[in-house]
Amino acid sequence: MTKINAHHLWNAETGKDNNITITRSVAEREDLEDAESEFAQSAVDSAWGFFGAKLVDNSGFDRIEMPVAIQNRFNEVAKQLQVSKETPPRVYSWQELGKVFGESNIKDIKFAVAHGMKVRQASKFLNLPFVLTADLIEDIEVIGKVAVRDIVSRIKAGKVKEALDEYGAPATKVVNLFKEAHKLQNHKIAVDEAAKKYWEDYYGEYGAQLVKEVKKRVRADLAYEWLRKCGIDEVASKYWQNYFSDSDYGKALTEVLPKKLTPSKG
Question: What is the pTM of this model?
Answer without folding.
Answer: 0.74
